[in-house]
């Protein structure tokens, strides 16, 4: 159980370092474009973990919604979900202002 927890933590650290590298590459591109933008770039832990979209305050009002909690950055979760759906040949509708993904995936039961 402890080994599994350590493995998950190591995976999370690897994904965070990949995200940090992506942000640094994007920042380098912006830095090349203009020196004025350079002053605004921030690669701190807080800036990396800051969501890029609007997030509502969590209210547990309806008990039948699908929900989960995570310490991962919401952008990383959304990117992973969309990548998985596209690999499954499902084209999701991704909201531009909120963390909201709509999709339809058809399946078969044991009785066809």
List the SSEs and their pairings.
Elements: H1 2-33, H2 35-38, H3 45-49, H4 74-87, E1 93-94, E2 101-102
Antiparallel strand pairs: 1-2
Which structural traits does this protein have?
112 residues; 4% strand; two-stranded antiparallel ribbon; 2 domains; extended; mainly alpha
Estimated share of beta-strand residues: under 5%
For the termini, the CA-CA separation is: 38 Å
Helix content: 40-55%
* Biggest beta sheet summary: 2 strands, antiparallel
Shape: extended
**Rg to the nearest angstrom?**
18 Å
- N-to-C SSE string, H for helix and E for strand: HHHHEE
Task: Identify the strand order in the major beta sheet.
Answer: 1-2
Q: What are the segments in which pLDDT stays under 50 over at least 5 consecutive residues? A: none
Number of helices: 4
Q: What is the domain total for the residues?
A: 2
Number of strands: 2
The overall pLDDT, averaged over residues, is 81
Going by helix content, strand content and strand pairing, the class is mainly alpha
């Amino acid at each position: 159980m402890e080994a599994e927890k350590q493995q998950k933590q190591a995976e999370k650290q690897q994904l965070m370092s990949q995200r940090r590298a992506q942000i640094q590459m994007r920042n380098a591109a912006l830095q090349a474009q203009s020196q004025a933008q350079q002053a605004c770039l921030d690669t701190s832990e807080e800036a990396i973990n800051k969501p890029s979209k609007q997030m509502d305050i969590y209210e547990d009002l309806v008990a039948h919604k699908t929900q989960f909690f995570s310490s991962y950055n919401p952008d990383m979760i959304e990117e992973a979900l969309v990548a998985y759906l596209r690999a499954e040949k499902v084209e999701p509708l991704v909201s531009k202002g909120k963390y909201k993904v709509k999709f339809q995936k058809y399946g078969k039961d044991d009785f066809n």
